[in-house]
Amino acid sequence: MRTWMILVLAGAAMAGGAGLPASAQDQQALVARGAYLVNGPAACGNCHTQKNPDLSPRNDMFLAGGERFDTPVFTAYSRNLTPDKDSGIGIWTDQQIIRAMREGVTKEGETLGPPMPVPTYHNMSDDDATAIVAYLRTIRPIHNEVPESKYKIPLRPMNNAKGLPAPPKSDKVAYGGYIVNAIAHCFECHTTPNERGEPDFASHLGAGGFPLPVWPVLSAKPGTIIYSLNITPDKETGIGTWSDDQIKRVITEGIDKDGKQLFPLMPFAYFKKMTPEDLDAIVAYLHTINPVRNKTEPNPTLQSLLK
Ligand code: HEC
Ligand code: HEC
To answer: Where are the domains of the chain?
Structure first.
């Protein structure tokens, strides 16, 4: 731990919050913002925390990685995001962690592959990236060596991220667009794949039908695929006829317009922790995207997969 951090923490313990020096208050606010993003809209744990058989996150493995993602073109394992010095990111610098998130290049210079949502995090502001790192430094270190991912597809790192500030919250649509496109990676799951199996952002943004493998903890159902759904404002195949409250309920509870409980690959348990303002902004933004007609495959029910 750095000396200043020990001083900050010692200061916090003595002063008990209210009388903190400004820098310690700033640090507290930064960690709180990071905790909000990681456990709310960014939903890092949906991939970086392994699951119990009922699909709830394993608290003993909080953000310790090792979740497996099996597709025809890769077997990937999420990595250990805890401050463990051997198996986690304890000895990485802030800049190294931010570069891995936003450009997909690790401390060792290796390129990260999917499903790590680097194309989304590429648009993340410097403030939010710094907040996420500040929070990750505070979580419990867990020793967990993660197997190496294997990709049959070429991996490309991204250019230098700009780190532009997020739009002001007063501009609801723009701010909602920032959460969707820089934090919550909605479109990396919800965009229809092209012939190469990559999301076709140019013509099918948000139109659904992307195949997502279920987690290996459901080993009784090997190879089950869940398809993302059309979240464009198309009236027949998308969510064009849904009320704002229905859209909010499916985002935060995973219950659709007809009362069906969705599969938690859709990170609703994380999105539930979003502020009402952020949720409002997301819905306002979703109304503005291009409606695309695309009928998606019906998914099996959650109950049938848990059995
Ligand atoms: C949709 C799944 C998914 C989400 C969401 C996700 N990650 Fe990842 N992440 C991965 C996978 C898989 C890898 C490993 C990729 C590989 O092996 O090339 C990874 C790798 C990383 C690495 C590289 C670590 C190392 O040791 O090389 C960092 C850092 C990271 N993720 C941070 C985050 C943070 C922070 C968040 C949330 C803001 C997040 N990830 C959200 C799937 C995800
Ligand atoms: C990790 C992948 C993933 C991410 C990230 C994700 N979703 Fe989903 N979403 C899904 C899947 C899969 C379903 C369908 C689940 C099912 O049918 O059981 C779904 C369902 C939905 C539905 C219901 C549509 C319908 O017709 O019933 C809406 C709306 C939705 N998502 C919006 C969003 C928004 C908005 C975001 C970002 C804030 C988001 N999703 C992020 C995978 C994802």
So the answer is: 3-14+23-151, 172-306
